[in-house]
Amino acid sequence: MELVPPFVAMIVALTRIIWFEGTLYSIPTIYLAILYGSSVLFILDYKQSGVFFSLMMVGGIVSVFQFTDYVPEVPFLSDLFFNGVVAWLISVMSYRSFSRQVTIHGLVREQNLKLSYLAERDWLTGMYNRRKIDELLNHGNNWPPSSFSYTSAILFDLDRFKQINDEYGHQVGDQVLRELASLVLGSLTPEEIGFRWDGEEFLIFTERDGVLLAEELRQRIASTDFAHEIHITASFGVAYVQTTESANELFKLVDQNLYRAKEEGRNRVVSTPR
Asked: Distance between CA atoms of 217 and 48, rounded to whole angstroms?
């Protein structure tokens, strides 16, 4: 249906050429071409296009009467008005189509962003999930990957978190995890990246000294009042990328150090030597 106006306009133009061949240099056809071309080139809304085409018609009438030998046999004014209206309708249709396409593309792009976000984010905390870790590490056979600029890995676990779920319920436990994730993310630089590793375990990749960052986070967690004025501590394991030969070895070391921190009394940082 949106193609009907241009087809009607072109049929009228062809009829004018045949009926008034050579008269007034086919003024209706000339103006039809200008107006129709403008409707395609200028994506304007309804009011803007109405003003635009009105000015073009007024300018066309004035210029023809002043600078052209007008032939009375040619119904110039009616043709110009008709062609202007048709061109305006084309502009309206073009704008509608353009707006609809922009809206569709915007919705598709927004949906793709949401799907991408959900695919690589933990639903509860908003931190990255383990799929994002695989994406970071699976770049070629070299270790570390060329795109992996982090020097330290930090794995930490909340101490006796099960007691919070047992005493306050899982909803409160989830709220504590959300608040903890917000605390951790607020402590990281834009270059650093945090993940929810599993349950109440979290992983961080950083370019800073891992021990210093882990100790800073340990102190902040221990001194924070979480939901329902809950106090909780965390145990940290730290390993350095340059001391390992693979991602598996890095994760193994950082997990062993976390386990040692738990065994040595919790609420502490354990790391491997550089």
From this structure: 57
pTM: 0.63
Catalytic residue check, 200: yes
- Of the residues 21, 110, 200, 201, only one is catalytic, namely 200
In tens, the pLDDT along 169-202 reads 999 999 999 999 999 999 999 999 999 998 999 9
- CATH 3.30.70.270 in the chain: give the residue spans: 130-271
**DSSP alpha helices (H): ranges in the chain?**
4-19, 27-41, 46-67, 76-120, 130-137, 161-168, 170-187, 210-222, 247-263
For residue 138, what are its two tokens? 């699976």
SS (H, E, C) 189-208: CCCCEEEEEECCEEEEEECC
Q: Count of CB atoms within 10 A of residue 59's CB?
A: 10
Architecture in CATH of 130-271: 2-Layer Sandwich (3.30)
Those residues whose C-beta lies under 8 Å from the C-beta of residue 25, and which sit 6 or more positions away, are none
Among 34, 33, 20, which residue's Cα sits nearest to residue 70? 20
